[in-house]
Amino acid sequence: MRKLFAALTCLAMLLALSVPAALAGRPVADKTAPTTTASPLGGTFTSAVTVTLSVNEAATTYYTTNGSTPTTGSTVYGAPLTFSATTTLKYFSKDTAGNLETVKSQTYTISGGGGTTTHATLTWTGYSMCSTCHTSQAQAMYQGVHYQWKGSAAEMTTGPTTQGKMDATDGSSALNAYCINIQGNWGPCGACHAGTGAKPVATANPSAAQLASIDCLMCHADATNAPYSRVRNATTGLFEPAAGLDMNLVVQKAGQKPTRKNCLGCHAKAGGGDAVKRGDIALASGTTSDVLYDTHMAMGNGGNIQCQGCHTFTGHRVAGRGSDLRPEDSTLEVTCSTSACHPTKTTATGHVTAAVNDHISRIACQTCHINKYAKNANDTANTEATETNRNWQVGEWNATLNRYEPMPTKANDLIPKYAFWNGTSWGNNAFNAAVLDSATGAYKISRPVGAITDPAGTKLYPFKYKTANQALANGKVVTISTATFFATGNYDQAVKDGMVYMGLPSTTAYSTVTTDELQVLNHQVPPATGNVLACAACHPNASATQLKLITNMGYALKAAQSVVCAQCHTLKAYSGDYVSFHGRHVDTRGNDCSWCHTFSRPEKGLKLP
């Protein structure tokens, strides 16, 4: 037994000695994380600083400059980073064995703030110079609706989760009653895109070249002291500064927050010309001193409010959305009642007249304060008339734009249309089945969603009403080739080219129908005194001059007067004094609206039937 034990012991020793020898040629597993070094390290600098990230082994480095913690889904480091504004750089590396380094952080403080002190010495080297210095801002801008032209459709009740005006075949590409869709016409449409000419590509990690395609000067050039404009290069298809500009001066003066001139350069001319599209925005909004035209933006005795005074920006995402727009850029809401503007106007005692205070929970500020739109400013030579119809069947040569345009109908001093709106919208997009609105006899393009029977939060708003004569084929609105139409004025060929884009034979039969849409009105508010809607504009229904609530807005009785009155008393004659009549039933008896109407107002705490 002892001999057996000794033999086994010797065998075990031999095996123990032989294992290392057998494994001697195998590599040892790498379990050491890489080490990334930033040069220079964070600190305070008097001018822009260029930072290089180096790693001690083969690895991929990821980083962020917006304060968030980087992941392997963050931007990959590929070239030195230049910071001209105070920036926190967070970074880590992952080696080829999969080892992850702990996230490191460096803060580079640029004295003087914002980096604008370095602009005075700049020399124009091309559009990439902006994103090279302002990388985090460019990354934020790249993801925003101003650059992507699409975004979250959280406030749309129809269509996919991401929508916008960018052309696509997945039902996410918006239609409108103006140029219909940008299919086939990226060139002219792209003139108002905040990029250098290439269509944006949706990606969470844009490359340096993609960031360089952002044209920051469209918003941040000094529109007064060093105005900037651009032209498209016919060969490359990309934008370049217009001839004769001192681009050194332009970039030296750039860096300010956008002024009204910057914003209106695109927004006032949307749809093909000044004041054409929105009905409450025109180039005059940036220059007028006429408070009756717009007391908020007028200079002189007006508020001289810049656009971002209401449309606040956070990380290059802007608050506010028109009812006809598919994407929302920011979840922040624009409101009139802020600490800086009208802090009490949405409270139960905010207005001098008690009857007005009774309206604020269901009537938007704009409804009473914008009594007409498409007004003319009294100190501008041009008309601020807006387009009310666009007829694509008739082509007219536009010498200013050097192209054919569909025949427009324009008008001034229009009374708004009114509708209830809960903040969400219905929209018809390219490739969707067209929907006929029996109330208007037109095919719907966009509509605010809301009803008189909605819970609190839905309010009555004013809207621009717009129609167009457009093609319909195979039950869908045709995304006609605007490029074909602008070049030739040939409606039939433009429709055929559009049908081919939609996957239909060019020989498909089509008809021309009327389309329509509603667009919420927010601008051209005059001073309240003498200009706000009076009670008689809406009450009583028979003599109302602006809005007939009973006829058009659902305020009719829920049954015959004899039936309604019989709930409480015998039929009594109505004297026509709607104020005392309403006050007796609601203020004195505390009756809820549902006693007489088809809707209720539970937020008022009144007695139900």
From TrEMBL:
The keyword Iron applies. InterPro entries: Cyt_c-like_dom, GH29D-like_dom, Multihaem_cyt_sf, Multiheme_Cytochr_ET, Octahem_Cyt_c. The keyword Plastid does not apply. Residues 1-21 form the signal peptide. Keywords: Heme, Iron, Metal-binding, Signal. It comes from the Bacteria. GO terms for molecular function: electron transfer activity; heme binding; metal ion binding; oxidoreductase activity. Pfam families: CHB_HEX_C_1, Cytochrome_cB. Residues 115-222 form the Cytochrome c domain. Coiled coil: none annotated. This is Alpha-2-macroglobulin. The lineage of its organism: Bacteria, Pseudomonadati, Thermodesulfobacteriota, Desulfuromonadia, Geobacterales.
